[in-house]
Protein backbone atom coordinates (compact mmCIF):
# COMPACT_ATOMS: atom_id res chain seq x y z
CA UNK A 1 0.00 0.00 0.00
CA UNK A 2 1.85 3.03 -1.20
CA UNK A 3 0.82 6.61 -1.71
CA UNK A 4 3.50 8.69 -3.33
CA UNK A 5 3.75 12.32 -4.34
CA UNK A 6 3.89 13.40 -7.94
CA UNK A 7 6.65 15.88 -7.17
CA UNK A 8 9.12 16.19 -4.35
CA UNK A 9 8.71 19.84 -3.38
CA UNK A 10 8.48 20.74 0.32
CA UNK A 11 7.16 17.70 2.13
CA UNK A 12 5.05 18.79 5.10
CA UNK A 13 3.97 15.37 6.32
CA UNK A 14 5.01 11.86 5.46
CA UNK A 15 4.25 8.43 6.83
CA UNK A 16 6.14 5.25 6.05
CA UNK A 17 4.93 1.68 6.42
CA UNK A 18 2.25 2.37 9.03
CA UNK A 19 0.77 -0.78 10.56
CA UNK A 20 -1.92 -0.86 13.21
CA UNK A 21 -4.09 -3.66 14.53
CA UNK A 22 -6.59 -3.70 17.38
CA UNK A 23 -6.34 -7.22 18.72
CA UNK A 24 -6.63 -9.52 15.68
CA UNK A 25 -8.34 -6.88 13.54
CA UNK A 26 -5.82 -5.29 11.19
CA UNK A 27 -6.82 -1.69 10.47
CA UNK A 28 -3.76 -0.32 8.67
CA UNK A 29 -1.31 -2.59 6.87
CA UNK A 30 1.70 -0.76 5.49
CA UNK A 31 0.31 2.68 4.63
CA UNK A 32 2.76 5.18 3.08
CA UNK A 33 1.81 8.74 2.26
CA UNK A 34 3.41 12.09 1.52
CA UNK A 35 1.69 15.47 1.73
CA UNK A 36 3.44 18.51 0.30
CA UNK A 37 3.44 21.93 1.94
CA UNK A 38 0.40 24.01 1.06
CA UNK A 39 -1.74 21.09 -0.05
CA UNK A 40 -5.28 20.40 1.09
CA UNK A 41 -5.64 16.64 1.08
CA UNK A 42 -8.73 14.57 1.76
CA UNK A 43 -8.72 11.14 3.40
CA UNK A 44 -11.67 9.04 2.34
CA UNK A 45 -12.76 5.46 2.78
CA UNK A 46 -15.56 3.23 3.97
CA UNK A 47 -16.58 3.08 7.62
CA UNK A 48 -13.93 1.11 9.46
CA UNK A 49 -11.29 1.66 6.77
CA UNK A 50 -9.00 3.26 9.36
CA UNK A 51 -9.34 6.98 8.57
CA UNK A 52 -9.56 8.11 12.19
CA UNK A 53 -6.89 5.62 13.24
CA UNK A 54 -4.54 6.99 10.55
CA UNK A 55 -5.12 10.60 11.64
CA UNK A 56 -4.55 9.72 15.29
CA UNK A 57 -1.28 8.04 14.35
CA UNK A 58 -0.23 11.00 12.20
CA UNK A 59 -0.94 13.35 15.12
CA UNK A 60 1.05 11.26 17.60
CA UNK A 61 -2.07 10.55 19.67
CA UNK A 62 -1.91 6.82 18.90
CA UNK A 63 1.18 4.64 18.60
CA UNK A 64 1.35 2.42 15.50
CA UNK A 65 2.54 -1.18 15.72
CA UNK A 66 5.13 -0.28 13.12
CA UNK A 67 6.07 2.71 10.97
CA UNK A 68 7.34 6.28 11.03
CA UNK A 69 5.67 9.66 10.71
CA UNK A 70 7.68 12.79 9.88
CA UNK A 71 6.24 16.28 10.19
CA UNK A 72 7.88 19.54 9.16
CA UNK A 73 6.60 22.38 11.32
CA UNK A 74 3.88 22.77 13.91
CA UNK A 75 1.12 20.19 13.85
CA UNK A 76 -2.42 20.41 15.14
CA UNK A 77 -5.13 17.77 15.35
CA UNK A 78 -8.88 18.36 15.47
CA UNK A 79 -10.37 15.11 16.85
CA UNK A 80 -13.59 13.63 15.48
CA UNK A 81 -15.45 14.00 18.77
CA UNK A 82 -14.90 17.39 20.42
CA UNK A 83 -12.38 17.08 23.25
CA UNK A 84 -13.49 19.90 25.53
CA UNK A 85 -14.06 20.53 29.23
CA UNK A 86 -17.81 20.65 29.84
CA UNK A 87 -17.50 22.80 32.95
CA UNK A 88 -15.59 25.60 31.21
CA UNK A 89 -16.83 28.24 28.78
CA UNK A 90 -15.46 28.62 25.23
CA UNK A 91 -13.63 31.78 26.35
CA UNK A 92 -11.94 29.85 29.18
CA UNK A 93 -10.88 27.24 26.61
CA UNK A 94 -9.37 30.01 24.49
CA UNK A 95 -7.42 31.38 27.47
CA UNK A 96 -5.99 27.95 28.30
CA UNK A 97 -4.97 27.28 24.69
CA UNK A 98 -3.59 30.81 24.32
CA UNK A 99 -1.25 29.89 27.17
CA UNK A 100 -0.50 26.49 25.62
CA UNK A 101 0.35 28.00 22.22
CA UNK A 102 2.03 31.02 23.85
CA UNK A 103 0.00 33.46 21.78
CA UNK A 104 0.31 37.17 22.64
CA UNK A 105 -3.39 37.77 21.89
CA UNK A 106 -6.58 36.03 20.79
CA UNK A 107 -7.23 38.07 17.65
CA UNK A 108 -6.96 35.08 15.32
CA UNK A 109 -9.24 32.98 17.54
CA UNK A 110 -11.88 35.71 17.57
CA UNK A 111 -11.58 36.03 13.81
CA UNK A 112 -12.28 32.30 13.45
CA UNK A 113 -15.18 32.52 15.91
CA UNK A 114 -16.71 35.35 13.87
CA UNK A 115 -16.32 33.33 10.66
CA UNK A 116 -18.00 30.33 12.28
CA UNK A 117 -20.63 32.57 13.89
CA UNK A 118 -20.63 31.56 17.54
CA UNK A 119 -19.43 34.71 19.29
CA UNK A 120 -22.72 34.82 21.22
CA UNK A 121 -21.82 31.61 23.06
CA UNK A 122 -18.38 32.56 24.35
CA UNK A 123 -19.35 32.79 28.00
CA UNK A 124 -21.72 29.85 28.25
CA UNK A 125 -20.51 26.53 29.77
CA UNK A 126 -19.67 24.03 27.05
CA UNK A 127 -22.05 21.44 28.54
CA UNK A 128 -25.08 23.49 27.44
CA UNK A 129 -23.83 24.15 23.90
CA UNK A 130 -25.30 22.35 20.89
CA UNK A 131 -23.28 19.65 19.13
CA UNK A 132 -22.55 21.96 16.22
CA UNK A 133 -21.27 24.77 18.45
CA UNK A 134 -19.06 22.34 20.37
CA UNK A 135 -17.63 21.21 17.05
CA UNK A 136 -16.96 24.83 16.07
CA UNK A 137 -15.01 25.37 19.29
CA UNK A 138 -13.18 22.08 18.69
CA UNK A 139 -12.12 23.42 15.29
CA UNK A 140 -11.10 26.86 16.56
CA UNK A 141 -8.82 25.27 19.18
CA UNK A 142 -7.07 23.38 16.37
CA UNK A 143 -6.65 26.42 14.12
CA UNK A 144 -6.20 29.42 16.46
CA UNK A 145 -2.38 29.28 16.32
CA UNK A 146 -2.20 28.87 12.53
CA UNK A 147 -0.29 25.56 12.60
CA UNK A 148 1.82 24.57 9.60
CA UNK A 149 0.03 21.24 9.32
CA UNK A 150 -3.48 20.56 10.57
CA UNK A 151 -5.25 17.19 10.70
CA UNK A 152 -9.04 17.47 10.73
CA UNK A 153 -11.23 14.47 11.45
CA UNK A 154 -14.66 15.17 9.94
CA UNK A 155 -14.48 18.71 11.29
CA UNK A 156 -17.88 19.88 10.09
CA UNK A 157 -20.11 17.26 11.77
CA UNK A 158 -23.24 19.04 13.00
CA UNK A 159 -22.52 22.20 11.00
CA UNK A 160 -25.35 23.87 9.13
CA UNK A 161 -24.86 24.57 5.42
CA UNK A 162 -23.60 28.15 5.92
CA UNK A 163 -21.04 27.04 8.50
CA UNK A 164 -19.99 24.16 6.25
CA UNK A 165 -19.28 26.69 3.50
CA UNK A 166 -17.50 28.96 5.99
CA UNK A 167 -15.30 26.01 6.95
CA UNK A 168 -14.22 25.47 3.35
CA UNK A 169 -13.54 29.21 3.02
CA UNK A 170 -11.22 28.90 6.01
CA UNK A 171 -9.56 25.87 4.43
CA UNK A 172 -9.07 27.81 1.18
CA UNK A 173 -7.55 30.74 3.09
CA UNK A 174 -5.15 28.36 4.84
CA UNK A 175 -4.16 26.91 1.48
CA UNK A 176 -3.58 30.40 0.03
CA UNK A 177 -1.35 31.20 3.01
CA UNK A 178 0.71 28.05 2.43
CA UNK A 179 -0.79 25.97 5.23
CA UNK A 180 -1.13 22.21 4.86
CA UNK A 181 -4.46 20.59 5.69
CA UNK A 182 -5.38 16.91 5.86
CA UNK A 183 -9.09 16.36 6.30
CA UNK A 184 -11.21 13.26 6.63
CA UNK A 185 -13.86 14.11 4.14
CA UNK A 186 -16.82 12.94 2.10
CA UNK A 187 -15.55 12.56 -1.42
CA UNK A 188 -18.79 13.34 -3.23
CA UNK A 189 -19.23 16.74 -1.61
CA UNK A 190 -15.71 17.92 -1.22
CA UNK A 191 -13.61 16.62 -4.10
CA UNK A 192 -13.58 19.97 -5.91
CA UNK A 193 -12.00 21.62 -2.91
CA UNK A 194 -9.07 19.19 -2.55
CA UNK A 195 -5.59 19.04 -4.11
CA UNK A 196 -5.38 15.30 -3.59
CA UNK A 197 -7.41 12.47 -2.17
CA UNK A 198 -6.10 9.53 -0.18
CA UNK A 199 -8.47 6.59 -0.50
CA UNK A 200 -8.06 4.12 2.34
CA UNK A 201 -9.23 0.61 1.62
CA UNK A 202 -8.82 -2.88 3.01
CA UNK A 203 -6.91 -4.01 -0.07
CA UNK A 204 -5.00 -0.90 -1.07
CA UNK A 205 -4.39 2.76 -0.32
CA UNK A 206 -4.56 5.00 -3.38
CA UNK A 207 -3.68 8.66 -3.72
CA UNK A 208 -5.15 10.74 -6.51
CA UNK A 209 -3.32 14.01 -7.16
CA UNK A 210 -5.08 17.07 -8.54
CA UNK A 211 -8.36 15.58 -7.48
CA UNK A 212 -10.47 18.64 -7.91
CA UNK A 213 -8.20 21.46 -9.02
CA UNK B 1 3.22 31.55 37.05
CA UNK B 2 0.48 32.82 34.74
CA UNK B 3 -0.12 29.27 33.49
CA UNK B 4 -0.59 28.18 37.11
CA UNK B 5 -2.94 31.08 37.94
CA UNK B 6 -5.18 30.47 34.92
CA UNK B 7 -5.36 26.69 35.48
CA UNK B 8 -5.93 27.03 39.24
CA UNK B 9 -8.73 29.56 38.74
CA UNK B 10 -10.49 27.35 36.20
CA UNK B 11 -10.02 24.16 38.23
CA UNK B 12 -11.55 25.76 41.31
CA UNK B 13 -14.44 27.09 39.22
CA UNK B 14 -14.90 23.60 37.77
CA UNK B 15 -15.13 21.99 41.22
CA UNK B 16 -17.51 24.71 42.44
CA UNK B 17 -19.79 24.03 39.47
CA UNK B 18 -20.47 20.49 40.70
CA UNK B 19 -23.76 21.65 42.13
CA UNK B 20 -24.92 18.18 43.15
CA UNK B 21 -21.88 17.64 45.36
CA UNK B 22 -22.21 21.17 46.81
CA UNK B 23 -25.90 20.64 47.51
CA UNK B 24 -25.33 17.26 49.15
CA UNK B 25 -22.63 18.75 51.35
CA UNK B 26 -24.70 21.81 52.25
CA UNK B 27 -27.72 19.71 53.21
CA UNK B 28 -26.43 16.37 54.49
CA UNK B 29 -23.87 17.67 56.97
CA UNK B 30 -26.27 19.87 59.01
CA UNK B 31 -29.05 17.29 58.71
CA UNK B 32 -26.80 14.55 60.08
CA UNK B 33 -25.32 16.69 62.85
CA UNK B 34 -28.73 17.95 63.98
CA UNK B 35 -30.35 14.51 63.63
CA UNK B 36 -27.69 12.46 65.44
CA UNK B 37 -29.13 13.07 68.95
CA UNK B 38 -32.52 11.93 67.64
CA UNK B 39 -31.07 8.73 66.21
CA UNK B 40 -28.62 7.49 68.85
CA UNK B 41 -29.45 6.85 72.48
CA UNK B 42 -27.96 9.35 74.92
CA UNK B 43 -25.99 6.51 76.49
CA UNK B 44 -22.29 6.51 77.14
CA UNK B 45 -20.03 4.28 75.12
CA UNK B 46 -16.67 2.98 76.31
CA UNK B 47 -14.14 2.27 73.58
CA UNK B 48 -10.41 1.99 73.15
CA UNK B 49 -8.74 4.69 71.06
CA UNK B 50 -6.15 2.65 69.24
CA UNK B 51 -3.81 5.57 68.56
CA UNK B 52 -3.25 6.18 72.31
CA UNK B 53 -4.26 2.81 73.75
CA UNK B 54 -6.49 4.60 76.26
CA UNK B 55 -10.10 3.76 76.93
CA UNK B 56 -12.46 6.69 76.44
CA UNK B 57 -16.04 7.14 77.50
CA UNK B 58 -18.24 9.27 75.25
CA UNK B 59 -21.83 9.93 74.39
CA UNK B 60 -23.05 7.63 71.60
CA UNK B 61 -24.50 10.49 69.58
CA UNK B 62 -21.14 12.29 69.50
CA UNK B 63 -19.41 9.17 68.20
CA UNK B 64 -22.23 8.71 65.67
CA UNK B 65 -21.89 12.33 64.62
CA UNK B 66 -18.17 11.92 63.90
CA UNK B 67 -18.75 8.64 62.05
CA UNK B 68 -21.54 10.12 59.91
CA UNK B 69 -19.67 13.34 59.08
CA UNK B 70 -16.60 11.37 58.01
CA UNK B 71 -18.80 9.16 55.84
CA UNK B 72 -20.35 12.15 54.11
CA UNK B 73 -17.18 14.15 53.47
CA UNK B 74 -15.10 11.19 52.22
CA UNK B 75 -17.80 10.10 49.78
CA UNK B 76 -18.39 13.62 48.51
CA UNK B 77 -14.71 14.37 47.99
CA UNK B 78 -14.15 11.10 46.15
CA UNK B 79 -17.21 11.81 43.97
CA UNK B 80 -16.00 15.37 43.32
CA UNK B 81 -12.47 14.47 42.28
CA UNK B 82 -13.49 11.29 40.40
CA UNK B 83 -16.04 13.21 38.38
CA UNK B 84 -13.68 16.13 37.64
CA UNK B 85 -10.75 13.86 36.72
CA UNK B 86 -12.82 11.70 34.37
CA UNK B 87 -14.18 14.79 32.72
CA UNK B 88 -10.77 16.44 32.34
CA UNK B 89 -8.63 13.44 31.32
CA UNK B 90 -8.81 13.62 27.49
CA UNK B 91 -8.97 17.43 27.64
CA UNK B 92 -5.79 17.61 29.73
CA UNK B 93 -4.04 15.39 27.19
CA UNK B 94 -5.10 17.71 24.38
CA UNK B 95 -4.07 20.77 26.37
CA UNK B 96 -0.62 19.45 27.25
CA UNK B 97 -0.09 18.13 23.70
CA UNK B 98 -0.80 21.71 22.54
CA UNK B 99 2.04 22.89 24.76
CA UNK B 100 0.49 23.74 28.14
CA UNK B 101 3.23 23.26 30.75
CA UNK B 102 2.48 20.22 32.86
CA UNK B 103 3.96 21.33 36.18
CA UNK B 104 1.70 24.39 36.60
CA UNK B 105 -1.25 22.25 35.53
CA UNK B 106 -0.43 19.66 38.19
CA UNK B 107 0.13 22.33 40.84
CA UNK B 108 -3.23 23.85 39.93
CA UNK B 109 -4.90 20.46 40.39
CA UNK B 110 -3.20 20.05 43.76
CA UNK B 111 -4.33 23.54 44.77
CA UNK B 112 -7.95 22.80 43.90
CA UNK B 113 -7.85 19.48 45.81
CA UNK B 114 -6.35 21.13 48.92
CA UNK B 115 -8.75 24.09 48.74
CA UNK B 116 -11.83 21.90 48.34
CA UNK B 117 -10.68 19.61 51.19
CA UNK B 118 -10.01 22.59 53.48
CA UNK B 119 -13.40 24.16 52.75
CA UNK B 120 -15.38 20.94 53.17
CA UNK B 121 -13.60 20.23 56.47
CA UNK B 122 -14.18 23.81 57.66
CA UNK B 123 -17.89 23.71 56.81
CA UNK B 124 -18.31 20.43 58.68
CA UNK B 125 -16.32 21.64 61.69
CA UNK B 126 -18.37 24.83 61.95
CA UNK B 127 -21.64 22.88 61.96
CA UNK B 128 -20.25 20.51 64.59
CA UNK B 129 -19.32 23.47 66.78
CA UNK B 130 -22.87 24.77 66.48
CA UNK B 131 -24.28 21.80 68.42
CA UNK B 132 -21.34 20.37 70.36
CA UNK B 133 -18.02 21.41 71.89
CA UNK B 134 -15.34 18.97 70.79
CA UNK B 135 -12.19 19.13 72.90
CA UNK B 136 -9.84 20.17 70.11
CA UNK B 137 -11.79 21.84 67.25
CA UNK B 138 -8.64 22.52 65.22
CA UNK B 139 -7.77 18.85 65.28
CA UNK B 140 -11.32 17.93 64.32
CA UNK B 141 -10.83 20.09 61.21
CA UNK B 142 -7.49 18.38 60.60
CA UNK B 143 -9.03 14.90 60.84
CA UNK B 144 -11.82 15.84 58.42
CA UNK B 145 -9.29 17.55 56.13
CA UNK B 146 -7.14 14.42 55.94
CA UNK B 147 -10.26 12.28 55.25
CA UNK B 148 -11.05 14.63 52.35
CA UNK B 149 -7.47 14.37 51.08
CA UNK B 150 -7.32 10.56 51.27
CA UNK B 151 -10.64 10.05 49.48
CA UNK B 152 -10.08 13.00 47.13
CA UNK B 153 -6.86 11.40 45.93
CA UNK B 154 -8.57 7.97 45.80
CA UNK B 155 -11.15 9.51 43.46
CA UNK B 156 -8.30 10.71 41.21
CA UNK B 157 -6.77 7.23 41.08
CA UNK B 158 -10.06 5.46 40.41
CA UNK B 159 -10.76 7.86 37.53
CA UNK B 160 -7.66 6.47 35.82
CA UNK B 161 -8.82 2.89 35.74
CA UNK B 162 -12.62 2.76 35.80
CA UNK B 163 -14.59 3.06 32.56
CA UNK B 164 -17.63 5.04 33.70
CA UNK B 165 -19.28 7.21 36.36
CA UNK B 166 -21.53 4.40 37.60
CA UNK B 167 -18.63 1.98 38.08
CA UNK B 168 -16.73 4.72 39.91
CA UNK B 169 -19.56 5.50 42.27
CA UNK B 170 -20.13 1.82 43.11
CA UNK B 171 -16.43 1.26 43.84
CA UNK B 172 -16.20 4.45 45.91
CA UNK B 173 -19.33 3.57 47.88
CA UNK B 174 -18.33 -0.02 48.64
CA UNK B 175 -14.72 0.91 49.45
CA UNK B 176 -15.67 3.73 51.79
CA UNK B 177 -18.16 1.55 53.65
CA UNK B 178 -15.72 -1.31 54.14
CA UNK B 179 -13.03 1.17 55.12
CA UNK B 180 -14.99 3.26 57.62
CA UNK B 181 -17.13 0.62 59.30
CA UNK B 182 -14.37 -1.23 61.23
CA UNK B 183 -12.95 2.12 62.38
CA UNK B 184 -16.15 3.11 64.19
CA UNK B 185 -16.32 2.52 67.96
CA UNK B 186 -20.05 1.91 67.47
CA UNK B 187 -19.34 -1.45 65.83
CA UNK B 188 -15.76 -2.07 66.92
CA UNK B 189 -15.20 -0.62 70.41
CA UNK B 190 -12.13 -2.73 71.15
CA UNK B 191 -10.20 -3.00 67.87
CA UNK B 192 -7.52 -5.65 67.40
CA UNK B 193 -5.37 -7.08 64.63
CA UNK B 194 -2.78 -5.60 62.35
CA UNK B 195 -5.10 -4.71 59.46
CA UNK B 196 -7.14 -1.88 60.99
CA UNK B 197 -4.31 0.68 61.16
CA UNK B 198 -3.40 -0.08 57.54
CA UNK B 199 -6.80 0.97 56.18
CA UNK B 200 -7.03 4.42 54.51
CA UNK B 201 -9.53 5.87 57.00
CA UNK B 202 -7.70 4.75 60.15
CA UNK B 203 -5.76 7.98 60.53
CA UNK B 204 -8.65 10.37 59.95
CA UNK B 205 -11.04 8.46 62.22
CA UNK B 206 -8.51 8.30 65.06
CA UNK B 207 -7.70 12.00 64.65
CA UNK B 208 -11.36 13.02 64.71
CA UNK B 209 -12.21 10.78 67.70
CA UNK B 210 -9.22 12.10 69.63
CA UNK B 211 -10.09 15.69 68.66
CA UNK B 212 -13.63 15.31 69.90
CA UNK B 213 -13.26 13.09 72.93
CA UNK B 214 -9.67 12.56 74.12
CA UNK B 215 -7.51 14.75 76.39
CA UNK B 216 -4.52 14.49 74.02
CA UNK B 217 -4.20 14.54 70.25
CA UNK B 218 -1.77 12.00 68.78
CA UNK B 219 0.06 12.95 65.59
CA UNK B 220 0.79 9.46 64.30
CA UNK B 221 -2.70 8.99 62.78
CA UNK B 222 -2.26 12.28 60.92
CA UNK B 223 0.99 10.93 59.47
CA UNK B 224 -0.84 7.72 58.44
CA UNK B 225 -3.45 9.76 56.54
CA UNK B 226 -0.81 11.88 54.86
CA UNK B 227 1.07 8.72 53.82
CA UNK B 228 -2.07 7.35 52.16
CA UNK B 229 -2.66 10.71 50.48
CA UNK B 230 0.93 10.88 49.25
CA UNK B 231 0.86 7.32 47.89
CA UNK B 232 -2.45 7.76 46.07
CA UNK B 233 -1.48 11.19 44.73
CA UNK B 234 1.81 9.79 43.48
CA UNK B 235 -0.02 7.11 41.49
CA UNK B 236 -2.32 9.75 39.98
CA UNK B 237 0.60 12.08 39.17
CA UNK B 238 2.64 9.33 37.55
CA UNK B 239 -0.31 8.28 35.41
CA UNK B 240 -0.91 11.91 34.40
CA UNK B 241 2.77 12.33 33.51
CA UNK B 242 2.85 9.17 31.43
CA UNK B 243 -0.43 9.84 29.63
CA UNK B 244 0.52 13.41 28.72
CA UNK B 245 4.01 12.43 27.51
CA UNK B 246 3.66 13.60 23.95
CA UNK B 247 5.56 15.62 21.41
CA UNK B 248 5.29 19.39 21.71
CA UNK B 249 6.50 22.41 19.80
CA UNK B 250 7.65 23.16 16.30
CA UNK B 251 10.29 22.01 13.85
CA UNK B 252 10.72 18.82 11.89
CA UNK B 253 10.29 15.74 13.99
CA UNK B 254 9.54 12.10 13.79
CA UNK B 255 7.16 10.28 16.03
CA UNK B 256 5.27 7.06 16.30
CA UNK B 257 8.29 4.86 15.77
CA UNK B 258 8.14 1.11 15.96
CA UNK B 259 7.26 -0.65 19.18
CA UNK B 260 10.95 -1.34 19.81
CA UNK B 261 11.63 2.39 20.08
CA UNK B 262 8.77 3.68 22.18
CA UNK B 263 9.86 7.29 22.79
CA UNK B 264 9.25 10.08 20.26
CA UNK B 265 12.49 11.32 18.72
CA UNK B 266 13.29 14.61 17.01
CA UNK B 267 15.16 14.35 13.75
CA UNK B 268 16.85 17.70 14.05
Automatic annotation (TrEMBL), chain A:
<dbReference type="InterPro" id="IPR003439">
    <property type="entry name" value="ABC_transporter-like_ATP-bd"/>
</dbReference>
<dbReference type="InterPro" id="IPR003593">
    <property type="entry name" value="AAA+_ATPase"/>
</dbReference>
<protein>
    <submittedName>
        <fullName>ABC transporter</fullName>
    </submittedName>
</protein>
<feature type="domain" description="ABC transporter">
    <location>
        <begin position="13"/>
        <end position="213"/>
    </location>
</feature>
<dbReference type="InterPro" id="IPR027417">
    <property type="entry name" value="P-loop_NTPase"/>
</dbReference>
<dbReference type="GO" id="GO:0005524">
    <property type="term" value="F:ATP binding"/>
</dbReference>
<keyword id="KW-0547">Nucleotide-binding</keyword>
<dbReference type="Pfam" id="PF00005">
    <property type="entry name" value="ABC_tran"/>
</dbReference>
<dbReference type="GO" id="GO:0016887">
    <property type="term" value="F:ATP hydrolysis activity"/>
</dbReference>
<keyword id="KW-0067">ATP-binding</keyword>
Automatic annotation (TrEMBL), chain B:
<protein>
    <recommendedName>
        <fullName>ABC-2 type transporter domain-containing protein</fullName>
    </recommendedName>
</protein>
<feature type="transmembrane region" description="Helical">
    <location>
        <begin position="106"/>
        <end position="132"/>
    </location>
</feature>
<feature type="transmembrane region" description="Helical">
    <location>
        <begin position="20"/>
        <end position="45"/>
    </location>
</feature>
<feature type="transmembrane region" description="Helical">
    <location>
        <begin position="222"/>
        <end position="242"/>
    </location>
</feature>
<keyword id="KW-0472">Membrane</keyword>
<feature type="transmembrane region" description="Helical">
    <location>
        <begin position="138"/>
        <end position="162"/>
    </location>
</feature>
<feature type="transmembrane region" description="Helical">
    <location>
        <begin position="65"/>
        <end position="85"/>
    </location>
</feature>
<keyword id="KW-1133">Transmembrane helix</keyword>
<keyword id="KW-0812">Transmembrane</keyword>
